[in-house]
Task: inverse folding
């Protein structure tokens, strides 16, 4: 019972099954839209389908117990297989297989040696290290065996790969259980010591203060952003301890936290000052961002919804939400600061004109603590030599038997096997043959 | 300028492919050596045009490697097919396989040129400005190229080993000058090379994502599909190493794997949303 369970856990059959399951789960996750509201699924899959999707966690499949159990299966399989095979493989690598094992190798080449000056007993120990590798010499009755193992460390390759995959998965688990992630939005000059968390949800008090000294965006001539940059100062007890420039693709670390430039937002500096005209009468109002403002005489409501530093090449603009008197849906429209090329239509009866708009940026920083990432990277690093050993170091065993036939005449028999690399074996053999024929 | 060069490249690949085909069909073995010339010359020009494009982007003072949008990735994919074919399979690049590689490179290039993709050199958005971009894209596309060759060998395998009368089959093998066994070996080697490069590609992508977005893995569709591709080929290798699968079954898996490659490359960009969508 236990032994058959163990058998199953270490089998390649299970490996294929777990690869298949992880693959199918991943495919589902890319086809079925993830992390949508229940109504979204309701609309497409009906009540029964939605029930199933939500019950099984398919709406967030990569974090669902089902998918995680597939990965657990893969992990278990890898660990079990390594535990079972590694000691054996290690023994095979470090100890020499006996002569009997070499005698069983399939013969590849046979030739007669009749060189007067030079016996194969001289030639082979000299030439073999260059041609095949350093031989172990064994005498067996009148036959002398030259035994060679090539690429034996290659045996370790698959296990190094497997080990590295185990380490990567464990690193991911450590990161998910022990790490956190948050997002800070700061205006220029603003300071904070609170980190609002996105995963897991919550809030963290920092043991330092972060200040955004400056935020800059630069654009290419065609208007696409070229670079975002935040100048940060980290303070402890009111004293600056570190200054850093944060760019996309160039994170900054402080303590165990890593900061990434993730987004930015254009914000008005202070309230937006608007001139509102109605029936030839103008008034001036100041509207802070996202705050309702009642127009005089009960004529409706406005709100500054959004500001942009450059809207489609027309310069700075404010997006207003306008709700006419007596209710109804709010209407959204843009008001340009620079009216030399006209002004987009406004729903009226009021007309709006921008009197003053000073812009500033708010910089969005992603903040992360991930204690597992170095494990993941260690796994990556180990995987490369693992692949090299497993795939490109041909493992071969050669046995060259020399038996005397008469005076100055010997029979040479070359036997060899290579696992999986037929071509490599063939090439070696050709090289060997050429070298022998030169010397015979 | 770099585009004009590509017209010639296209033509040379096409000529090379025809020559390989003639060599195969009419058993003109010597022609194989000659067929290398147009293809390799084309490849030289292709290399030149990529370098040229890089140079042009520097002149527009938005200098970046020509690997930043769909059009440029196609140019590189085509280049990579020939590169991997000759570097990895010099001896086997003859007859039908030579013809396959050359015509594939030719078709990709034609699709790049006439498929209506934006071919202007565009500036890079901030997240793409990284040296990881180059090494990530290069390793991924070299991997795709190796898988494409494995796919070609698998198709040839079906052709060679099509079950007919035993005599006829031997005839066909003699005619093709390549045995089912050779092809099996070739599929396998192409996939080893491809899997190694794909692993490198995924790793470099992860390291890059960690520095650009703060997440080495975010289950974005393109990432996920590259993992699926990786799983298929890893499955193929295990079936072969440990369960002794060979021949037909391996060839079928090589086709399935290449379908996953195509989906990772094209399907995700066009059908599924995600981070990598800017590549379209
Ligand atoms: C692409 C990466 C991988 C490569 C190149 C690779 C390579 C290998 C090789 C060469 C063997 C045969 C070892 C031998 O015969 O001594 C093997 C066995 C095995 N592999 Fe992998 N492997 C990879 C990934 C995986 C993964 C992701 C799993 C997860 C399930 C896995 C599970 C196994 C198992 C269970 C065995 C059987 C162990 C044994 O009996 O030796 N491998 N692998």
Result:
């Amino acid at each position: 019972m236990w032994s058959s369970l163990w058998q199953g856990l270490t089998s390649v059959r299970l490996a294929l099954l777990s690869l298949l399951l992880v693959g199918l789960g991943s495919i589902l996750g890319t086809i079925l839209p993830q992390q949508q509201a229940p109504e979204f699924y309701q609309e497409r899959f009906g009540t029964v389908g939605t029930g199933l999707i939500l019950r099984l966690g398919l709406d967030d499949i990569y974090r669902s117990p089902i998918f995680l159990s597939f990965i657990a299966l893969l992990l278990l399989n890898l660990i079990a297989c390594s535990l079972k095979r590694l000691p054996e493989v290690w023994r095979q690598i470090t100890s020499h297989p006996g002569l009997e094992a070499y005698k069983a190798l399939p013969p590849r080449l046979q030739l007669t040696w009749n060189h007067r000056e030079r016996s194969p007993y001289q030639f082979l120990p000299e030439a073999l290290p260059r041609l095949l590798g350093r031989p172990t010499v064994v005498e067996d009755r009148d036959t002398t065996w030259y035994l060679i193992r090539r690429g034996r460390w290659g045996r370790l390759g698959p296990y190094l790969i497997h080990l590295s995959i185990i380490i990567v998965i464990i690193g991911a688990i450590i990161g998910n259980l022990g790490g956190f992630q948050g997002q800070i939005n700061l205006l220029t000059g603003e300071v904070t010591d609170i980190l609002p968390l996105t995963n897991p949800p919550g809030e963290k008090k920092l043991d330092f203060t972060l200040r955004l000294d400056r935020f800059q965006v630069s654009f290419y001539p065609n208007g696409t952003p070229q670079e975002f940059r935040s100048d940060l100062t980290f303070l402890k007890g009111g004293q600056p301890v570190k200054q850093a420039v944060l760019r996309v693709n160039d994170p900054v670390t402080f303590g165990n936290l890593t900061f990434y430039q993730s987004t930015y937002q254009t914000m008005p500096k202070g309230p937006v000052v608007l001139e509102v005209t109605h029936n030839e009468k103008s008034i001036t109002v100041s509207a802070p961002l996202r705050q309702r403002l009642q127009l005089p005489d009960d004529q409706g409501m406005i709100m500054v919804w959004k500001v942009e530093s450059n809207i489609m090449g027309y310069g700075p603009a404010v997006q207003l939400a306008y709700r006419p008197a007596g209710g109804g849906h709010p209407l959204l429209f843009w008001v340009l600061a620079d009216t030399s090329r006209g002004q987009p239509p406004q729903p009226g009866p009021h007309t709006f004109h921008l009197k003053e708009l000073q812009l500033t940026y708010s910089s969005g920083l992603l903040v992360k603590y991930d204690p597992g990432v170095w494990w993941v990277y260690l796994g990556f690093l180990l995987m490369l030599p693992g692949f090299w050993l497993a795939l490109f170091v041909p493992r071969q065993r050669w046995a060259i038997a020399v038996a005397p036939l008469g005076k100055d005449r010997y029979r040479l028999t070359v036997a060899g096997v290579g696992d999986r690399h037929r071509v490599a074996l063939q090439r070696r053999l050709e090289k060997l043959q050429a070298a022998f024929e030169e010397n015979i | 300028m770099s585009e004009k060069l590509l017209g010639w490249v296209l033509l040379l690949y096409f000529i090379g492919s025809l020559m390989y085909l003639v060599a195969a069909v009419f058993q003109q073995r010597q022609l194989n050596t000659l067929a290398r010339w147009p293809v390799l010359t084309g490849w030289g020009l292709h290399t030149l045009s990529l370098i040229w494009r890089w140079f042009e982007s520097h002149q527009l003072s938005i200098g970046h490697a020509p690997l930043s949008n769909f059009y440029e990735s196609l140019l590189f994919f085509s280049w990579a097919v020939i590169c991997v074919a000759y570097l990895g399979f010099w001896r086997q690049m003859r007859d039908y396989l030579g013809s396959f590689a050359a015509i594939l490179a030719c078709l990709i290039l034609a699709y790049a040129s006439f498929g209506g993709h934006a071919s202007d050199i565009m500036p890079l958005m901030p997240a793409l400005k990284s040296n990881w971009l180059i090494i990530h894209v290069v390793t991924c596309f070299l991997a795709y190229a190796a898988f494409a060759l494995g796919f070609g060998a698998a198709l040839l395998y079906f052709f060679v080993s099509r079950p007919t009368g035993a005599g006829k089959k031997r005839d066909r093998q003699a005619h093709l000058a390549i045995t089912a066994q050779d092809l099996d070996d070739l599929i396998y080697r192409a996939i080893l090379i491809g899997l190694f490069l794909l692993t490198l590609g995924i790793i470099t992508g992860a390291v890059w994502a960690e520095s650009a977005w703060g997440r080495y893995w975010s289950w974005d569709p393109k990432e996920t599909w590259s993992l699926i591709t990786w799983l298929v080929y890893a499955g193929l290798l295990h079936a072969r190493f440990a369960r002794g699968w060979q021949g037909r079954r391996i060839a079928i898996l090589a086709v399935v794997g290449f379908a996953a490659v195509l989906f990772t490359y094209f399907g995700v960009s066009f059908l599924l949303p995600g981070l990598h969508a800017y590549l379209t």
Observations:
- The mean pLDDT of chain A is 85.
- Residues 352 and 392 of chain A are 72 Å apart (CA to CA).
- The pocket of protoporphyrin IX containing FE is lined by residues A 12, 15, 18-19, 74, 77-78, 81, 85, 158, 161-162, 165, 390; B 195, 234, 237-238, 241-242 (CB under 6 Å).
